[in-house]
Design goal:
Blueprint (H helix, E strand, L loop, with lengths): L1 H14 L11 H12 L11 H15 L2 H5 L13 H7 L2 H11 L2 H10 L3 H5 L1
Keywords: Mitochondrion, Mitochondrion nucleoid, Transit peptide
Main location: mitochondrion
InterPro entries: UQCC2
Length: 125
């Protein structure tokens, strides 16, 4: 029975897309890591709580197949702020978040970081 559970999770991992814009914060990558941890011995892994395992699998399948998105369709593809889905994806991209983090730094902190890093020419003097 553990072998069939393992194969189902593997199939789900194969189908689950990864988002390159969310490096190290992607749900697909996280899912793959968790499945690898949970099934360390592959098909021979002993599952302590098969019911919880099945429930987790079913929940992930519902997320993957957009079950609730289809069950409860939205009238508009925007949020209460008026931001579209594409705008949200762009804002949540890792590169943009890094830029925003850099912008949050105060002037004093940025100057301190800039001048605290010694240049190679200064070390030779």
């Amino acid at each position: 029975m553990a072998a069939s559970r393992y194969r189902r999770f593997l199939r789900l991992c194969e189908e689950w897309p990864t988002e390159d814009s969310k490096r190290q914060r992607d749900l697909g990558s996280f899912l793959r890591q968790r499945v690898a941890q949970a099934f360390r011995e592959g098909e021979n892994t002993q599952i302590s709580d098969p019911e919880a395992c099945d429930q987790m699998y079913e929940s992930l399948v519902r997320i993957h197949t957009n079950f609730y998105k289809n069950k409860y369709p939205r009238l508009r593809d925007t949020t209460f702020t008026g931001v579209t889905v594409e705008d949200c994806r762009t804002i949540l991209a890792t590169d943009i978040l890094k830029q925003m983090e850099d912008m949050k730094k105060g002037t004093w902190k940025r100057l301190r970081e800039k001048f605290s890093a010694k240049k190679p020419e200064e070390d030779s003097k």
